[in-house]
Write a structure and sequence with these properties.
Largest sheet: 3 strands, mixed
Distance between the termini: 22 Å
Helix content: 10-25%
Structural class: alpha+beta
Radius of gyration: 17 Å
Number of domains: 1
Length: about 240
């Protein structure tokens, strides 16, 4: 059973109710990262996947197989198009699944950071991930974080190294600071923070996510408005491992 630490929730940042994010002032103490033991996979984890004209690499971490890049597709797995919500008026209206680019970024940047999606994309039964893959649950993200030493250490192990982004990428997860789009339509924190949806609902209005701040080793668990735009990572179905 996964254990949570009450102190963690009292120190880390929280959502303010107008869709903005407060930067955490908490600085975790330095500690040694756990040794990452490379797991020899008996399946095809570690191989590349071609999905909707994009190539994704994969990595085995513990008993999980993750994509190493954020999603970039604009259709569900069955080919059904996802609504583009680049314009603010489109983004903030309704409860259908939508995607956008961070401030209409050019293709090379989208290729690196991926697209941003609201949670209604995650919740659509047509599945944004390829067949045999899914958007991870809150519990599955917890499994990843705790395997890598817990909330106060895992960020360093999951993040790549870049300006304002202090990761060492020891697990090969290749997390990047793609920023987010608020439920009100504004873009924030690219190159400073990375945000990823889980498929787990928190309430009628909120859903659970993870974010990783620059120059901290933490992986922060929080819930945000479902209309917020975050990155998405796919996890391989356990029955296919």
């Amino acid at each position: 059973m996964i254990k949570y630490f009450p102190l963690y929730f009292s120190l880390l940042s929280s959502l303010n109710l107008i869709g903005q994010i407060k930067i955490s002032e908490f600085k975790p103490q330095q500690a040694s990262a756990p040794e990452i033991v490379e797991k020899k996979s008996t399946n095809d984890c570690g191989m590349s996947i071609n999905y909707q004209n994009f190539t994704y690499t994969t990595v085995s971490i513990g008993n999980q197989c993750w994509m190493r890049e954020n999603l970039r597709n604009t259709s569900y797995s069955d080919g059904t198009p996802i609504t583009k919500g680049q314009e603010i008026e489109t983004w903030i209206m309704g409860t259908e699944g939508k995607w956008c680019d961070y401030e209409e970024d050019k293709n090379p940047v989208v290729e690196e950071y991926g697209k941003l999606y609201n949670w209604y994309v995650v919740n659509n039964p047509k599945n944004i991930c390829p067949t045999g893959w899914h958007v991870p649950s809150d519990e599955e993200w917890n499994d990843l974080v705790f395997y890598l030493g817990g909330e106060f250490l895992a960020g360093d192990i999951l993040k790549t190294h870049a300006p304002d982004w202090n990761g060492r990428n020891l697990a090969g997860f290749n997390a990047l600071p793609g920023g987010f789009r608020s439920n009100l339509g504004g873009f924030k924190y690219k190159t400073l923070y990375g945000f990823w949806w889980t498929k787990t609902e928190a309430s009628n209005v909120y859903a659970w996510c993870r974010n990783m701040p620059g120059f901290e080793n933490t992986v922060i668990r929080n819930n945000y408005f479902k209309k917020t735009g975050f990155s998405i990572r796919c996890l391989k179905d356990s029955k296919n491992l």
